[in-house]
Write a structure and sequence with these properties.
single chain, about 350 residues, alpha+beta, ten-stranded mixed sheet, 8 helices, 17 strands, about 20% helix, elongated
């Protein structure tokens, strides 16, 4: 944690603050350091106060690219934030712990429940990381290594040291991790279809009242300059009436990759409210002989990575949540009428 070592006492008026750089922030660029401590302040304003010399390191001017060192004193000028951000500060996220699969001095792996965002934003005031930070106020650092969709459950990595964060994110970027999900899809998945290698294109839906629309992803062609190559490996785990349980391993970590790739093959994920079969979803929600499915059936099941300190290969597994186990055990999905 970066401790405030000097500030004028005022609750509503912006004041000058001096932050002491600790071991976890050492090596970080000044601009990135400021983004973390000036939540809600536009990037353009952050760079403006750096260029103007209002931000100081050890009482001297510095550039955005300056790397901080342990023990540096950083001057933060008085900065006003929006009422929305001030409200968040006044009413922080409720502290919450999540089931822990692995934890040591460098990282923790939790089993994220469905329906919880990994972080605040896009209409969500807080997520897993904000709740963890509130539950562990003495933790020096807690940062998300990667993301999961709000409605996806399963393994989520959180770094407790900046060196571990960088090491782990590099592994995700270089595709050195092994990520396998369990997904229930509509219909009888073809046994021969084991690899989906289709580029994906991100776009925004039209917004209302000048607001930015929702983010969506679609399969595109190799000629699309904005398309990103995406590779998904699929293995049939179990066949059920009207549906198939799949083990899905992703070689690239694109936004909504599994959901879009599977839907593009005519086998959308059960309960997917963005790319799914909405009539089928409504049938699945009805409690009949089997319990109704109240969520998307996508679960981050297994994860492999190299430990950032020991370099040993770590293999984690998060069992299916009880509501998904119960649904599979009944195995009485109704095939929608054609």
């Amino acid at each position: 944690m970066n401790h405030i070592i000097g500030s004028k006492t005022a609750d509503t008026t912006p004041v000058v603050k001096w932050l002491l750089v600790d071991e976890e922030s050492a090596g970080q660029r000044l601009d990135n350091f400021l983004m973390r401590h000036l939540k809600g302040v536009p990037k353009t304003h952050v760079y403006r106060i750096i260029r103007s010399g209002e931000v100081r390191i050890n009482k001297g001017r510095a550039s955005a690219e300056t790397r901080l060192e342990n023990g540096d004193e950083v001057r933060l000028p008085p900065v006003r934030v929006s009422e929305k951000v001030a409200e968040k500060v006044a009413h922080p996220a409720p502290g919450r712990e999540f089931p822990v699969l692995l934890e040591d001095d460098s990282l923790m792996a939790i089993d994220k429940p469905s329906g919880v965002a990994v972080h605040g934003g896009s209409g969500v005031s807080f997520g897993v990381i904000e709740q963890l930070r509130q539950a562990r106020p003495h933790a020096k650092l807690l940062e998300l290594v990667h993301r999961l969709d709000r409605d996806t459950s399963g393994i989520l990595l959180v770094a407790k040291k900046r060196s571990a964060l960088k090491h782990l994110q590099d592994q995700f970027r270089e595709r050195e991790t092994g990520k396998t999900y369990l997904a229930l899809v509509k219909g009888d998945w073809p046994s021969k279809l084991k690899v989906i290698d289709q580029p994906l294109h991100k776009f925004l839906l039209p917004g209302q009242d000048g607001q930015e629309g929702e983010r969506r992803v679609r399969v595109t062609t190799a000629e699309d300059p904005d398309g990103m190559r995406s590779i998904t490996l699929v293995k049939v785990a179990q066949r059920l009436p009207g549906a198939t349980l799949l083990e899905v391993t992703i070689k690239t970590g694109r936004t909504h990759q599994i959901r879009v790739h599977l839907a593009s093959q005519g086998h959308p994920i059960a309960g997917d409210d963005k790319y799914g079969d909405f009539d089928w979803n409504r049938q699945l929600q009805r409690p009949g002989a089997s319990p109704g499915l109240k969520r998307m059936f996508l679960h981050a099941w297994r994860l492999q990575f190299n430990h950032p300190v020991t370099a040993e290969r770590v293999a984690l597994q998060a069992d299916l949540p009880s509501e998904l186990k119960t649904y599979i055990n009944h195995a009485q999905l109704q095939t929608p009428s054609v």
